[in-house]
């Protein structure tokens, strides 16, 4: 009887240990994005002059469904949609990724015009550090991405969620990104909740295929040709670096 109790206790311990360290492989993450409009448009007088003195932070929410092989990142529509100029100060991209095909599909709202990109997923050169913090109950580790000479991104990822997924176009780390921020704090994403679930199949792909599709380089060329007097090449490079 004593031997049976020891074996039973050992079995329970093994089960508890394996359960405690089990990684989440599919689920749903809710992100809040905070955009500091004053910082974001400090060097853009064309936009800055339209911002009210009291307007500083803009808060928006996004949801991301993920599995071992796919992810879908989408804006959550507000109960009170913004009108006019303020609506276009931040991006509201829907991004689908198929990691088995190394392919991404991005549904964009280009200043009121629906636009679709299909392209390969570009690798990110992250520098993982020893700094840690908790986000949404998960212990996360900080990593740094140098996008260009002036733009640095900080990401906090957890290995408790095994797929390499994250908000916008940021992934490529050994786990899910739950926090993301520009170095100057102009844009900050933090996970508000994480739920283990099997995402509905309808959430993982576009409802319908668009008629006109671009690669990133094709869309940049089209925008420079049609809007070159308003949009600079550096602005486009900065915008598409997030995708």
Short summary:
This protein has 243 residues and is of the alpha+beta class. The chain is built from five helices and eleven strands; from the N terminus they run αβααββββββββββαα.
What does the model show?
The protein has 243 residues and is an alpha+beta fold. It has a domain at 22-121 and 184-240. The protein is 19% helix and 37% strand. It has helices spanning 2-20, 37-40, 45-48, 216-227, 233-240; strands at residues 27-36, 57-66, 70-75, 94-98, 103-110, 113-120, 127-135, 138-146, 152-158, 176-182, 187-196. A hairpin with a 3-residue loop joins strand 2 (57-66) and strand 3 (70-75). The radius of gyration is 21 Å and the shape is globular.
Write the layout of secondary structure elements.
Blueprint: H1 2-20, E1 27-36, H2 37-40, H3 45-48, E2 57-66, E3 70-75, E4 94-98, E5 103-110, E6 113-120, E7 127-135, E8 138-146, E9 152-158, E10 176-182, E11 187-196, H4 216-227, H5 233-240
Antiparallel strand pairs: 1-2, 1-11, 2-3, 3-4, 4-5, 5-6, 7-8, 8-9, 9-10, 10-11
Features of this protein?
243 residues, alpha+beta, 11-stranded antiparallel beta sheet, 5 helices, 11 strands, 37% strand, globular
Quote the beta fraction: 35-45%
**Structural class per helix/strand content?**
alpha+beta
Distance between the termini: 62 Å
Helix content: 10-25%
Biggest sheet strand order reads 6-5-4-3-2-1-11-10-9-8-7
Mean pLDDT: 84
The helix/strand order is HEHHEEEEEEEEEEHH
Biggest sheet character: 11 strands, antiparallel
Count of DSSP strands: 11
Round the Cα radius of gyration to an integer and report it. 21 Å
User: Uncertain segments of ≥5 residues (pLDDT<50)?
Assistant: 3-20
Number of helices: 5
The rough form would be described as: globular
């Amino acid at each position: 009887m004593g031997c049976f109790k020891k074996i039973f206790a050992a079995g329970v311990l093994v089960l508890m240990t394996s359960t405690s360290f089990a990684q989440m492989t599919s689920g749903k993450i809710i992100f809040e994005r905070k955009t500091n409009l004053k910082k974001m448009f400090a060097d853009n007088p064309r936009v800055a002059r339209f911002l009210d003195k009291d307007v500083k932070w803009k808060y928006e929410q996004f949801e991301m469904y993920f599995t071992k092989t796919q992810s879908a990142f989408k804006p959550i529509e507000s109960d009170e949609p913004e009108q006019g100029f303020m609506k276009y100060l931040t991006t509201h991209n829907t991004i689908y990724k198929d990691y088995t095909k190394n392919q991404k599909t991005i549904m964009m709202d280009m200043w009121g015009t629906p636009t679709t990109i299909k392209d390969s997923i570009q690798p990110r050169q992250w520098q993982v550090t020893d700094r840690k913090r908790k986000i949404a109950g998960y212990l996360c580790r900080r990593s740094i991405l140098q996008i260009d000479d002036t733009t640095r991104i900080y990401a906090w990822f957890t290995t408790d969620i095994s797929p390499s997924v994250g908000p916008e176009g940021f992934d490529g780390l050994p786990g899910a990104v739950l926090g993301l921020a520009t170095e100057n704090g102009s844009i900050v994403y933090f996970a508000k909740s994480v739920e283990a679930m099997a995402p509905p199949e309808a959430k993982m792909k576009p409802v319908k295929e668009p008629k006109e599709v671009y690669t990133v380089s094709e869309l940049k060329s089209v925008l420079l040709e049609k809007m070159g007097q308003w949009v600079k090449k550096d602005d486009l490079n900065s915008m598409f670096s997030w995708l």
